[in-house]
Fold this protein.
Amino acid sequence: MEECDVLIVGGGPAGSSAARRLVQGGANVLVLDKERFPRLKLCAGWITPEVVRDLEIDVESYPHRFLTFEKLHIHIKGLHLRVPCVQHSIRRIEFDAWLLERSGARVVQHTVRNIRYEGGTYIIDEAFRAPYLIGAGGTRCPVYRTFFREANPREERLQTVTLEHELEYDWKDPDCHLWFFGNGLPGYSWYVPKEDGWLNVGVGGMASRVKSSNRDIREHWSLFTSMLNRKLAAGAQYDPAGYSYFVRGKVDVPRIGNAFITGDAAGLATRDMCEGIGPAVRSGQRAAEAILRQQTYTLDDVTGASLGGGLASRMLDWAFTRGA
Ligand SMILES: Cc1cc2nc3c(=O)[nH]c(=O)nc-3n(C[C@H](O)[C@H](O)[C@H](O)COP(=O)(O)OP(=O)(O)OC[C@H]3O[C@@H](n4cnc5c(N)ncnc54)[C@H](O)[C@@H]3O)c2cc1C
């Protein structure tokens, strides 16, 4: 049996952020992930300046693709707004592997199946044991399923459905474009260029509302990519894949004993933009601090609104989850 101070299930942004803080604080940490990194993670890879700050990334020395947008193009019901603001894009396949390696934690490729609590320790698959456990395994996190599901049941209306593809493409427009509610989608579609000829495009919305509408997500994808073909991305060939996650609902119990849940495992993506990287990073860091400093673990400063919770945030939240 391998023993350590903290077991972290999942090496995405939540897990690697927790791991880095814990290693910096002198803890012996083991990260278990079912994938070998670098691994594919379906995600548009848009990150905010806040994420860059929280992760203390020195952009100049970041060794992979990193693109900065000076404005966002928002398309909504025929209107085209150019919103000045600084945002960034990365490729998750590169970013996550870099973050995990930078954490300095030991990483073992292992699919977590069974977790039990015995004698003050968490035992995973009879092979790993620690007095602290962090669940950072995304939507299907086994820590959530084992310990937190009853305390924090997920609300169906807060579940997203997405389709996306990241491809090598010699884009001409270097800005990020977002189309809200196009063709009746209860969500938005995106065009997110990456540095050096990569592009991520996708469509996403609230699953239950897409299901009850007259178009499924694949039809939205076809309509969206046909439009791109006529405008921003002529000739691009797609092979999209889907993934689902939850936007922020009530997380009444983020800690039980010495077990914590973070990131998508806790359903922390923002309700106005479905942004999950920032909340994953911040919650991972807060879980680590709670362990190191014997503090309460709260999600109070893990935002549930990318746009700050003002009128625009509230309108988008309402439009996504209740009605367009
Ligand atoms: C199509 C799409 C586009 C998105 N675009 C954006 C965006 O542009 N910006 C943004 O901020 N957010 C975006 N999100 C949301 C964002 O990707 C997630 O919120 C974020 O990845 C959550 O990080 P995490 O560390 O909690 O989980 P993850 O990144 O999902 O990491 C979880 C890790 O746990 C591992 N794991 C799972 N089960 C097990 C197991 N049983 N045993 C061991 N390991 C396990 C997985 O292999 C994975 O590496 C998008 C999501 C989707 C689906």
Remarks:
- Residues 277-293 form the longest helix (17 residues).
- The two ends are 53 Å apart (CA to CA).
- Residues 9-15, 32-35, 41-46, 111-112, 136-138, 140, 142, 162, 164, 202, 204, 243, 245, 263-265, 269, 275-278, 280 surround flavin-adenine dinucleotide (CB under 6 Å).
- The mean pLDDT is 95.
